[in-house]
Write a structure and sequence with these properties.
The two termini are 24 Å apart. An eight-stranded parallel beta sheet has the order 8-6-4-3-2-1-10-9. The protein folds into two domains: 311 residues, Divalent-metal-dependent TIM barrel enzymes (TIM Barrel, Alpha-Beta Barrel); 63 residues, no CATH class. The radius of gyration is 23 Å and the shape is globular. Helix 2 runs parallel beside helix 4. By secondary structure, it is α/β, with parallel strands linked by helices. It contains 15 helices and ten strands.
C-alpha cells in the first residue's frame, strides 16, 4: 500500500527493539512469538518507512555477553543501520528485569545495588553514544515500593537525584552530545512508582545540578493509566521547554500497562495530541513504545508497526483539515475577537503598583461576562465531524 499515509524517513518515526521484538509473554502466559534478531528488526522497520530504532542495553547485548560477543553484536548492528539508512536517536538501560533490581536500581535501599546500577548505566550510555544516540531515557521501572515500612520515600528521591546528577557529570566528562529524558509512570511493575507524573518529574528536574540537560519522555499509556489527560501533560512539558522525547501508544484507563497500537483506543485524544505536536514546533522523534497483541505472529507485528505510523499520518492530515476548515476558522475567530476585546489592566505585562491599583479600580460587567456562552459544543462537534471523515 502506497498513498499519502505511507511513512517516510522525514516523518521521524521510531520503534524500540523491545516493541517489535515483544514475544507476547504476560503474567499468565508463555511467549507466543520467538525472539527477534535486532538486525532483522532494523531491516523490516526500514522497509516500512521507519526512521529510527531504539534499545535498552540488553535488547541488543545480552546481560552476560562477553566483551568479544558485545563487540561482534554492535559491529553487526552498526552495519545494519548503515545498510538500511536507519539511526539510533535514543537509548536506555534495562534496570528492571534482572532479580538484582527487585527493590529498585537508583533508589534501591542496598548501596551496592545503587552502585551497580550506575556502573551498568555508564556502560549503556557508552553503547548509546557509540551508536549515535543523542537522547538517553530513564524509566524507573523498579523505582518504587509496595510498602513504605522500611525505606523513606524522601530518601528514595534523594538517591535518584544523586544518580542523575552523577550521570550528567559522566556525560559531560566524556564529551557526549547527549541529553537525558525522564519517563514518569504511576504504577506497575511496582505498586507505586516514585515521581509518577509529568508534574512530579518537572519539579524534580528543577532540583538537579544540571537541569538544562534533563527533560521528559512522557508516555501516552502512563498518564492515561491514572486517568490523567496526556495532551495536557505534553503541553506542560512543551511550555517548560522539556519535551525531549515522547512515547506514543494507547491505553484503557485503569487497566494494566497495555501499550496498544497508537490511536487504537482513544482516537480523539490521539488526534488532539498529534495536532499539539505538529503545531508546537516539536522536531524530535515520534517514538512508538507499544507492541502487537498477544494474538499475533510476526506478520501481525509488522501490521501493528505499519498501523502506528499510518494512524499518526492520518491524524496529522485531519489536524490540518480541522485548522483549515472555514467554519472552524470562523467560529474560532469570533471567539477570539470577544476574548481579546478587553483592553484594561491585567497580569500579561507583569506586576507594577500602578497596574495593581488600576486593576483594583477597574469596573467589570460581571452579569454580561457570566451570561456569555462559550460555543464549545459547536466547536467540538466540528472536531468530531472532521475526525469521522464527514467534513
Amino acid at each position: 500500500m502506497s498513498d499519502q499515509y505511507t511513512p517516510q524517513k522525514s516523518d521521524k518515526f521510531s520503534f524500540g527493539l523491545w516493541t517489535v521484538g515483544n514475544v507476547g509473554r504476560d503474567p499468565f502466559g508463555d511467549p507466543v512469538r520467538p525472539p527477534m534478531d535486532p538486525v532483522h528488526a532494523v531491516r523490516k522497520l526500514s522497509e516500512l518507512g521507519a526512521w529510527g530504532v531504539n534499545f535498552h542495553d540488553n535488547d541488543l547485548v545480552p546481560f552476560e555477553a562477553s566483551p568479544q560477543e558485545r563487540d561482534r553484536i554492535v559491529r553487526e548492528f552498526k552495519q545494519a543501520l548503515s545498510d538500511h539508512g536507519m539511526v539510533v536517536p535514543m537509548a536506555t538501560t534495562n534496570l528492571f528485569t534482572h532479580p538484582v533490581f527487585r527493590d529498585g536500581a537508583f533508589t534501591s535501599s542496598d548501596a551496592s545495588v545503587r552502585a551497580f546500577a550506575l556502573q551498568k548505566t555508564m556502560r549503556a550510555i557508552d553503547l548509546g553514544a557509540e551508536l549515535g544516540a543523542t537522547t538517553y531515557v530513564f524509566w524507573g521501572g523498579r523505582e518504587g515500593s509496595e510498602t513504605d515500612a522500611y525505606r523513606n520515600p524522601g530518601d528514595a528521591v534523594k538517591y535518584f537525584r544523586d544518580a542523575i546528577n552523577f550521570l550528567c557529570e559522566y556525560v559531560r566528562s566524556q564529551g557526549y552530545d547527549m541529553r537525558f529524558a525522564l519517563e514518569p509512570k504511576p504504577n506497575e511493575p511496582r505498586g507505586d512508582l516514585y515521581l509518577p507524573t509529568v508534574g512530579h518529574m518537572l519539579a524534580f528536574i528543577s532540583t538537579l545540578e544540571h537541569p538544562e540537560m534533563v527533560g521528559l519522555n512522557p508516555e501516552f499509556a502512563h498518564e492515561t493509566m491514572a486517568g490523567l489527560n496526556f495532551v495536557h501533560a505534553v503541553a506542560q512539558a512543551i511550555e517548560a521547554g522539556k519535551l525531549f522525547h515522547i512515547d506514543l501508544n494507547d491505553q484503557v484507563m485503569g487497566r494494566y500497562d497495555q501499550d496498544f497500537r497508537f490511536g487504537s483506543e482513544n482516537p480523539k485524544r490521539a488526534f488532539l495530541l498529534v495536532r499539539l505536536l505538529e503545531g508546537s514546533g516539536y522536531d524530535g522523534p515520534r517514538h512508538f513504545d507499544a507492541h502487537a497483541y498477544r494474538t499475533e505472529d510476526e506478520e501481525g507485528v509488522w501490521a501493528f508497526a505499519r498501523g502506528c505510523m499510518r494512524t499518526y499520518l492520518i491524524f496529522r492530515e485531519k489536524a490540518r483539515k480541522f485548522d483549515d476548515d472555514p467554519e472552524v476558522r470562523g467560529l474560532i475567530a469570533e471567539l477570539r475577537k470577544q476574548d481579546e476585546s478587553y483592553s484594561g489592566p491585567d497580569a500579561h505585562s507583569g506586576y507594577s503598583d500602578q497596574t495593581a491599583g488600576a486593576l483594583k479600580e477597574q469596573e467589570f460587567d460581571v452579569a454580561a461576562m457570566a451570561a456569555r456562552g462559550r460555543r464549545y459544543e459547536e466547536l467540538d462537534q466540528l472536531l468530531m465531524e472532521v475526525l469521522l471523515g464527514v467534513r
